[in-house]
Structures are given as structure tokens and as C-alpha cells.
Amino acid sequence: MKRYDNYSLSAHNTFGMDVRAALFVEYETEDELRRFLQSGDLARHGRHLHIGSGSNLLFAGDYDGVVMHSALRDLEVVAEDDSHIEVRVGAGYVWDDFVAYCVAHGWGGVENLSAIPGEVGASAVQNIGAYGVEVRDVIVRVEAMALDGTMHVFANAECGYGYRDSVFKRGLRGQYIITHVVYRLDKTPTFRLDYGDLRARVEAGGTPTLEAVRGAVAAIRDSKLPDPKVLGNAGSFFTNPIVTRSHYERLKETYPDMPSYPAGEDLVKVPAGWLIDHAGWKGKALGRAAVHDRQALVLVNLGGATGKEVMALAERIGEDIYNNYGIRITPEVNFIL
Ligand SMILES: Cc1cc2nc3c(=O)[nH]c(=O)nc-3n(C[C@H](O)[C@H](O)[C@H](O)COP(=O)(O)OP(=O)(O)OC[C@H]3O[C@@H](n4cnc5c(N)ncnc54)[C@H](O)[C@@H]3O)c2cc1C
After folding, report:
1. Degrees to nearest 5, angle at CA 118 with 115 and 119
2. I want to staple 55 with a disulfide (CB 3.0 to 4.6 A). Which of 26, 101, 112, 117 is the partner?
């Protein structure tokens, strides 16, 4: 097990914040993790955080506790029939490497989730989604270790999945460490192309294939999203708010081009990026934090910004959106205070 005191997390968060953890540990086996949890170090340090690759985290400052990271990177087929295959993957496996593996083996289900930063463990915490697909659609079960070292298996239905949400983000936050996730993939892929210009891009190349979908998704994402290696960011900063249809209809009288998507009976989802853009925030900076100039949903670190500066910008935007539209937008990014 790797163990470092006063450890810099700058390579472990895509906002590029130069913050430190009082103790950082990275384990390679479940036994190592269990021994560490039972060592008393968590209690001694007072608080703990398990991270993946830090692509959805915003640190307000140094972390005066234990930061844990998984180096469980195994992958095995655990069940198979004529139409499906079930794969069990270690939480530390890089998510996009897993997508590439599935595509290379002809297994469908995760190709629309290509090029999302992060690791397998966090995919099951965040219920990652893109291009009309959410990972909950393919998760069979999640294996996790409680802080006393005992193992628990959560069936998909027990994970409380919602839009970018799960029990691991809410009621069970900080109580379980995900060690493995089991995914169920299709041997005969069904292509889901009805999102944005994905179909046009894929079909321009002929009959759809998993490789073509993966390539098209990656190309669209490249053209729209800033690369965290160049400009620190954590992807979409806010979730898309859900409002009542009557609230939306009233707003539409003033803003006829405000888009929406159905979100259940009498509810609609409004793109947060549209609200932020139309409130005039695109490209605006507050100190060293800014709204990206091509994608209003993404807040960026212009260089040397602190987490508090990004949080202050997010708060100002949130107030403005509420004052303009009467809609509360909430961060998708996990604030680490
Ligand atoms: C450029 C960019 C584009 C993005 N695009 C998308 C997108 O299209 N769709 C989307 O859904 N997200 C997107 N994201 C957000 C991000 O990629 C996802 O939220 C991802 O799942 C985070 O993975 P991570 O490994 O970096 O997790 P982290 O950010 O390190 O952690 C996220 C949460 O998971 C918890 N966690 C991590 N590992 C474990 C574990 N093993 N056990 C228990 N808890 C754990 C953490 O405590 C934290 O609460 C994007 C981010 C960036 C930077």
C-alpha cells in the first residue's frame, strides 16, 4: 500500500487545485484496504474521503483528513449467455479504458459514455450519463466495503439511482468504499443515436458500429468541452434543473426559445447551460475562475484559482439564475469543504 503524509492532490483533481491531504493512501487489494480501515487511522485523522481521479471534485482548500484511492484494476467475465455478458471491474479501472475494452470486444451498452473522465468506482456513485445513456442502465450490482471492513453487495435497485445521483452520494455518503462494479453488456448492440447530432455523425460513416459511435461521441465531446489538462475544470458544473410545467410555460412567455425536455408528469428539465448563457455569464470571470467561453455549463480555473474562488463564482451565478428565472440550480460537482 502506498502511504504519504502531507501529500499534494494537484494531480488528483481535474480543476488542478494545489491542495494537500494530511494522509493519502492507495491500496492494491481488498485485504490491504480492510487492514487500513481496521488500523484506526481514519478515526485518528477525524475525517476521510475516497476519490477516483478527482474529475468531479472541488476542494475548498487543504484536506485535513485521510484521502483514499483504489488501485483495484482487475477485470473478469463473471457470467455469459447467448445475448449478454457480465463483467466485474475493479473500482480503480479507468472508465474510458473499460469503454474501449467493451467496444473492442463487441459488447454494447457503454459506447455512448465514451471519453467521460474518471474511474469505474465513481461511475456507480455518480450514475454518469451522456448522449441519452446512464450507467445505471448497465449496472447489475455494486460491491462495497463498509468502514468496519465487511463487504456488502448492492443490487442495482438498492443503489437508489436518479439523475447523476445514488445512495452513495446521499444517505450512505462516506460509509462505503466501492471495490468492484458488475456491468451487463449486450452481445448484439442496440444503437442509441437520438441525441443531438450523434446519428448524423455516425451514419455519415455508413452502418453504425460500436467503434463509430465511440469515435463520434469522442469527437463531439472534444469539440465542445475544454481539456482539463489545458484548462482546469470538472465538466458540467451544475445539474439541469427540473421545474413544474406551469412554471416553465410562464417563463416561455418571456423567453420563447427556452428549451426543455420531459422529466415526468407535469415536470420538465431545463438545460442549466442555456440559463447561464442567457443570463450573460458565458466567458465571464470572477478573479481567476471563469465560465468557459464555449460551454456555459463548465466553470474553469484560468490558472491558480482557489476552490473558494470557483465556489464564489458558482454562488453568484446561482443567485443570478434564481433572480432572473425563479429557478434554483444546484452543483453537480462535489464540494470538499
Ligand atoms: C471534461 C469533463 C467532462 C465530463 N463529462 C461528464 C459527462 O458527460 N457525464 C457525466 O456523468 N460526468 C461527466 N464528468 C464528471 C466526471 O467525469 C464523473 O462524475 C466521474 O464519474 C467522476 O469520476 P472520478 O473517478 O474522477 O471521481 P471523483 O471525482 O474522484 O469522485 C466523485 C465522487 O465519487 C466518490 N468516489 C469515487 N470513487 C469511489 C469509490 N471507490 N468508492 C466510494 N466513493 C467513491 C467520491 O467520494 C466523490 O463523491 C465530466 C468531467 C470532466 C472533467
Report:
1. 115
2. 117
- Location of C-alpha cell 476552490: 307
Dump pLDDT digits (tens) for 201-215.
999 999 999 999 999
**Domain 232-336 belongs to what architecture?**
Alpha-Beta Complex (3.90)
Distance 39 CA to ligand 1 centre (A): 28
Q: Can you name the residues that pair with 39 across neighbouring β-strands?
A: none
In tens, the pLDDT along 262-302 reads 998 999 999 999 999 999 999 999 999 999 999 999 999 99
pLDDT in tens, 23-41: 999 999 999 999 999 999 9
* Multiple choice CATH, 2-70, 3.40.50.620, 3.40.50.1220, 2.60.40.10, 3.30.43.10: 3.30.43.10
Q: Which protein residue's CA is at the shortest distance from atom 53 of ligand 1?
A: 234
**Distance between CA 258 and CA 280 in Å, rounded?**
14
What is the pTM for the complete model shown?
A: 0.96
> Is position 119 annotated as part of the catalytic site?
no
Query: Does ligand 1 lie within 6 Å of residue 91's CB atom?
Result: yes
